[in-house]
Amino acid sequence: MQKRTVAFSKHASNLFFHILTRCNLACAHCYINPAQHGSARLSIDTIEQWLALFARRNPDSNVIFLGGEPTLHPDLFRAVRYARQLGYTSITIDTNGYLFHDILDRITPDDVDFISFSLDGATPETNDAIRGKGCFDQVVAGIRTARRKGFSCSMIYTVSEHNIHELAQMPELISTMGLERFFIQVIGLRGESSKDNTLQVSRRIWLDVIPGVAHTIAESGITVTYPKVFLDPGQDFECAGNVAQNYFVFPNGRVYQCPVCEDYALHSYEIRDNELVSMPPVNESDLFKLSIPEGCVMNKLVQPGNIEYLPDGRPAWKIACCLLKEELSNRCL
Ligand code: SF4
Ligand code: SF4
């Protein structure tokens, strides 16, 4: 078994491209915030221009198409093919499983590297209580169809207090699905989830559950990625905003470098006339430069529930950048 912490890379760039914000579901923890991200659907012309803009900035870019539900966009297949034409290193579609507009018939496995399905429970009871009735069955059927057509598939499980009890059942559930990658995410308190203060998982429970389940899944040959969340004692803190190139792009033109900032008008850039324009201070990049004993400044501001303090006032641990990941695989990493 190989385990590594995925260091931030100055050279690779990740474009998290929200091509629309509309969705057929209304998940209890949805991170979309219409007041901040609008309700626009980008035209295919604009999508292509923005894809070209980021490909020019960094030829070694990965793109992840997101929404809302990106398959609700009737031109997603065109966007995917154009991203391939531009030479994006990897292309992923994140979907809630409904796979609208016959997307799997309009692209081929050569057009896209991964179709990534979101599932937040090992049973319909738990998943559908969070994501909506019928969603569990839809995801399972969607993965089956995608695999039959030869697409590489991955899954994202967003962990909160409402579903961590079922994570240990996931290795068995996914054992016959033919997934290549499994991503464990931690709930971020933004959008709808910012209204619920019962979602965050404690450090003790996180450390008790996550590494063990990740190990079990990785043993079956599936590569597992999960966020570090809590730094080990003595481990250095680094903010991805200072060293990596991650762009979270919304259809209203806002471009964030940090997903924890997405509920606020703190974006580093805006796209205007198909150019990336830096925003004046104060924006998220001013926060990235601050050094505090708790580690991540935005976690301290937005989700302080995952920090505890010693009697002398020092934080008991540092919170890692939400983009710092551990990767486990029984293949060579
Ligand atoms: S979390 Fe994703 S699938 Fe769920 S409502 Fe929001 S955009 Fe849709
Ligand atoms: S999560 Fe924290 S450490 Fe990571 S980019 Fe955002 S502000 Fe920086």
SSE layout:
Layout (H helix, E strand, L loop, with lengths): L1 E5 L6 E6 L15 H4 L6 H14 L3 E6 L9 H11 L3 E6 L7 H4 L7 E5 L5 H8 L3 H14 L4 E7 L10 H5 L6 E6 L16 H17 L3 E5 L12 H4 L1 E5 L4 E3 L12 E4 L2 E4 L5 H5 L8 H6 L22 E5 L4
Parallel strand pairs: 2-3, 2-9, 3-4, 4-5, 5-6, 6-7, 7-8
Antiparallel strand pairs: 1-13, 8-13, 9-10, 10-11, 11-12
The protein binds iron/sulfur cluster (SF4) (2 copies).
Q: Can you offer a commentary on this structure?
A:
It is a single chain. The relative contact order is 0.16. The protein is globular and about 60 Å long. It has 11 helices and 13 strands. A 13-stranded mixed beta sheet has the order 1-13-8-7-6-5-4-3-2-9-10-11-12. The chain has a single domain, classed as Aldolase class I (TIM Barrel, Alpha-Beta Barrel), CATH 3.20.20. It has 333 residues and is of the alpha/beta class. The structure holds iron/sulfur cluster (SF4) (2 copies).
